[in-house]
Design goal:
Strands 3-2-1-4-5 form a five-stranded mixed sheet. The chain is 56% helix and 9% strand. The relative contact order is 0.08. The longest helix has 31 residues, at 419-449. With 461 residues, it is of the alpha/beta class.
Length: 461
């Protein structure tokens, strides 16, 4: 069995062997690359930055490579972030290949990318969706804390084992909530396999979709939780009586159960979009606008024009301050059942307004990735005017790219010919350009006339 020093040595050798091979692979395969980067703070208070490189190779395969996880010295200013990224790019010989960098909405990250020449910043849509959801859930903050407290009760080993025992004894107690679980999870429930009984999922504010996933599981286990409460109440031993009393104190009301169920239905679309847009093994940029339009449809209500002020900062729910027990005022709020009347509509209204805040309109530029994707190229989610303008813009981009390519080809050719040959060549080139325009128009039209492919198809193939 190798010791710690031996394992470190093996890892170091593997790193020294693999990195040059990856650098060469990117050099050969990639014309341009997209970078995804994020910063976080470790438990010791030190800041780290992770950098991932994505590109399409010559065979139209999507590649993703984790380049590094580096320490970033404090303060985490835009300058320090930019310097850290430049060090990574230089180490990997990538500086001239980087086309876009995707980050969250933090001001220092956006400013850092803006300071880097010939690189475009792109917001992380999955992160933005989580900001939208986090801000919209502020009206139900007390409910969230009450639910967290209930979940925390069942995260303890003793209560977790009791919940598992109840599932074994009453396997059909969840029938009314069976639709909440996907097929994969349904298959794991087997009375003969004690390792596959479902437990509650902890709600962690920094984890994407955490509240949604925690609530779905809580609702699914609702029947067993209520049975367990009755069993504990009927038992005569002191330990059971004590736990039954505590569970009664923290149990949410029927109205609160109903509101949680309604909220999960609303948030399911956001959860799906966050998961899909957060993928790294498939194309996501072209999916963003169609998904946003579908989300807007789901939350558009008669409350959409509600003009309530919404001045929260972008870091709502991004830190850990909103945890149970943060102050006496919050504790007193979660000890009392909340009045659920009107809260669902308030959350929907805030979801709608937050979407319009972060995505006020569909820009033609944002539709280009979608029209280039054979799954979405009809732009059924856009207006007719937007479709026409996007098609015109695509034609313009394509024409410019074609002309630039031909000009570069001409510039690289030999200049040692005679004036007559040079003149003839220019005429030939002009003729070629003239014909190329027709080809370009026909090629774009031909592509757009082809039927869309299935959503589960690979748009690169």
């Amino acid at each position: 069995m190798p010791d710690e020093k031996g394992i470190k040595k093996v890892i170091y050798k593997a790193y020294k062997f693999t990195m040059p091979a990856l650098i060469e692979k990117i050099k050969v395969d990639a014309k341009s690359v997209s970078i995804t980067t994020d910063m976080w703070t470790a438990r010791n208070g030190q800041g780290y930055i992770g950098v991932t490189c994505s590109y399409i190779d010559t065979k139209f395969n999507l590649n993703e490579i984790t380049l590094t996880v580096n320490y970033v010295r404090y303060p985490h200013t835009a300058q320090h972030v930019a310097e850290s990224l430049d060090e990574v790019f230089n180490e990997w010989n990538l500086r001239d290949k980087v086309f876009t960098i995707t980050t969250d909405n933090a001001a220092n990250m956006k400013k850092a990318i803006a300071s880097m020449s010939n690189i475009r910043w792109q917001e992380c849509s999955a992160h933005t969706l989580q900001l939208i959801v986090g801000k919209a859930l502020v009206p139900v903050k007390a409910l969230i804390m009450r639910v967290k407290r209930l979940i925390k009760f069942f995260m303890r080993p003793k209560q977790s084992e009791r919940l598992e025992d109840i599932q074994k004894k009453y396997p059909n107690a969840n029938l009314e909530n069976d639709e909440l679980l996907d097929e994969a999870e349904k298959e794991t429930i087997d009375v003969k396999d004690t390792a596959k009984y479902l437990q509650l999922i902890n709600d962690v504010s920094t984890r994407w979709n955490s509240s949604y996933l925690a609530w779905v599981r809580l609702l699914y286990l609702k029947g067993w939780i209520k049975i367990l409460f009755n069993v504990l109440s009927c038992n005569m031993d002191l330990d059971s009586k004590k736990d039954a009393k505590r569970l009664k104190q923290i149990m949410i009301t029927d109205d609160e159960w109903d509101l949680i169920a309604d909220l999960t239905e609303v948030l399911s679309t956001f959860a799906d979009a966050t998961e899909d847009l957060g993928g790294g093994k498939y194309v996501t940029n072209s999916m963003r606008t169609p998904m946003l339009m579908e989300i807007i449809k789901t939350v558009t209500t008669d409350l959409a024009n509600n003009q309530d002020s919404d001045e929260e900062e972008d870091d709502v729910f991004e830190n850990n301050d909103a945890e149970e027990g943060q102050d006496s005022t919050q504790n007193s709020k979660i000890n009392e059942p909340i009045n659920t009347f009107g809260l669902l509509d308030e959350v929907k209204s805030k979801l709608y307004k937050n979407i319009k805040k972060y995505y006020p309109t569909l820009f033609t530029e944002s539709l280009i990735p979608s029209i280039l994707d054979p799954r979405f190229k009809k732009l059924d989610f856009a207006s007719e005017a937007q479709k026409i303008e996007t098609k015109r813009h695509l034609q313009e981009l394509f024409n410019n790219e074609k002309v630039n390519y031909q000009n570069n080809q001409a510039a690289s050719s030999t200049q040692s010919t005679t004036q007559s040959k040079s003149s003839k060549k220019r005429k030939t080139l002009m003729a070629r350009l003239s014909k190329a325009n027709v080809v370009v128009i026909n090629e774009i039209e031909e592509y757009l006339q082809l039927p869309e492919i299935a959503l589960d198809s690979n748009p690169l193939m």
